[in-house]
Amino acid sequence: MDLHFEDHNNLSLKRFEKMLKTNSVYFFDSVEFERIIKHYIDSGKINLAKKAILLSLEQHPQTIGLRLLKAELLIFEEKYTDAFLLLDEIQAVEPTNEEVYIQKAILFSKQEKHVEAIKLLKRALELSEESNIDVLSLIGMEYLFMEDFERALLYFRNCLEIEIDDDTNLYNVVYCYDMLEQQNEAVAFLNQYLDKEPFSETAWFQLGRQYTFLDNYIESLKAFDYAILIDEQFVGAYIEKAKTLEKLGRHEEAIENYLLTVELEDPTAYAYLRIGNNYEKLNNIEEAIEYYLKSNEQDPFLGKPLIAVVNLYFKKEAYQKALFYNNKLIEIDDENPDYWRIYAQSNLKISFFGEAAKAYQKCIDLGDNSFETYLALSDSLFYLGDYNEAIKVLLNAEIYFHRHAEIDYRLSGLYFLIKSNTLGKKHILRALSVNAQKYKIFQSLFPTVHNSTGVKSIIKNYKNQF
Fold this sequence. Notes:
Layout: H1 3-22, H2 30-42, H3 46-59, H4 64-76, H5 80-93, H6 98-110, H7 114-127, H8 133-145, H9 149-162, H10 167-179, H11 183-196, H12 201-213, H13 217-230, H14 235-247, H15 251-264, H16 269-281, H17 285-298, H18 303-315, H19 319-332, H20 337-349, H21 353-365, H22 371-384, H23 387-400, H24 405-417, H25 421-434, H26 439-445, H27 447-450, H28 453-464
């Protein structure tokens, strides 16, 4: 940057802010005002930008550059009618000013009038003395908004022909290929690009992504490695490399790369979650739990690491610990039926059938009408000895799930237990006709009923019919 220019700009800013503080009036030429206003716009200090525009137009009321900056701010504030009137005034004075057409196009774009915006941008392009990369990029963005990815791609590629090392337009080109699902074409383009720009870490990174989409993980790894060689601080490349190593089953190497991202920047819940998952794949349960809990510390509202911890404690048959972290899940979101289902399963494992039944009922209340949830709720009530409530649940389940042997076997056993033998016989015969192989459900849940003379007789007669 020109240091003289920077010093002059800082001096202008200091003079302007001193003027505001002392309520004095200093003179600035129009170029100084433009620099001051652009500085405030770029810094997000809109109120100061507005003050600068007001004062600048008092001193230079007809200066086109200042009036265009005023139009830009009006568009930013969504004062579209005022902006359009001002731009029409400027256009009447300078009909060949390309910036007027650009601002009008931005205005139309904000109103989702993308076709009109493109027409104006193309007119601005005609008025430009040379190829204007900013206008080409804006046209590409308008086509993106319209989801016309093929046309957008052409304009973004044109941008790269003018300025090959523009990472934003490179990303946009690859994005268009992604949306068009043209991974092979993207690979060809990126390889051609890298022939010209071999030290572009962005291009190597994007090439690695494309190879991943094509399941070519070896080439993908090579590309990510090149990106990292060029920029050893490229966190995104380490993450994508780690994800690729996971797909190749190289979990220890994946862990190493995720750990590098933690060293390079602040730890993330995602990195710790993936590390935990890789340790789990290596059957290193204690390390997996440690990193899942670190993930939870980074983002206490993320459910995935806690679900993983609960599942691992299930595998270890440490059901009390599983229940502890289950309670944390419920604290995060007590309207999530998945969390209540896991909570119910934890309670079942330690024979807390009452809590399990309440949790399964909560799942249903929250819209979980799955077959398994109804069966689990009825089984929980059965274990509690509340046979009539269990029957009600199964009869409700029949509304959604017709002719399921699992329901009929349970209804049969429950009816026999409450001495409704006629209904018990009806449902066991229906269950047998639907799926005789699943009779073991009945046998497992109701061993006493299974061994009764009446049921043995029903089974014997059923077999004799075939």
